[in-house]
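Narrative summary of target 7.
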Amino acid sequence: MSETRPANETARLPYVLVAPNGARRQHSDHAELPVSLDQILHSAQTCFEAGADGIHLHVRDKRGRHSLDAGQYLETIAELGRVVPDMDLQITTEAAGIFDVPAQFECLQKVQPDWASISVREIARAPDLAARVYGLCEEQGTRVQHILYDAEDAALLVQWRKDGIVHKEQSDRLLVLGRYTTGQQSSPQDLDQFPVGASDWMICAFGAQEHACLVEAAGRGGDVRVGFENSLTDRDGNTWENNAASVSALIAMLERATK
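Modeled conformation, tokenized:
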């Protein structure tokens, strides 16, 4: 990941990507969870001001449901470029139990994003299309961040790289902690399930120990993703006021940890 922090920092702070909404949560989960375009723009701006380097973008349809609609993506990308021009932008291709691999491919093809997250597990549903998905990203210059939920996903990514399905430079990984655990609660020890690799890596973590997991990952040299997609509360169960509050608290923790 690119380093955007001041050069006079005594220790490296990780790259911070904010995931403000995700595919599933609604206003009923938190009043400040951004769903509409205006809400996403406001959340992005306040999170950038709080110290986030980039945004992991989900868009919703008119009923607030997860969407991979290219038109919505292109409109939102354009507006984010206007409101927060210095903030990096990553789109999701998450299926969320709704979209198949051809729909994910079509989204990537029509949006042509600079950066996209792609779940190895989801693409494996249509292995005959995997080479086309990663080949498209290579051709159009879309940077890929592979979503990995466990060691099996990591092993499949290694195999696909050996087979030439995934291109050599497509090496960035997001390690997801707690998505498939009881109550979706992660712990810093969950990091140990993933094999060590030399490529850039980032984590996100579900549950009350989100920040503790992120600080642990930063100490091991990883980058971090934070936000309401993964957790609405701090370690004591107190609900964050908004995404920016969570970002601010995390950065304060990271700064203390790197002194």
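Helices lie at 37-50, 70-83, 101-111, 120-123, 127-140, 151-163, 210-219, 243-257.
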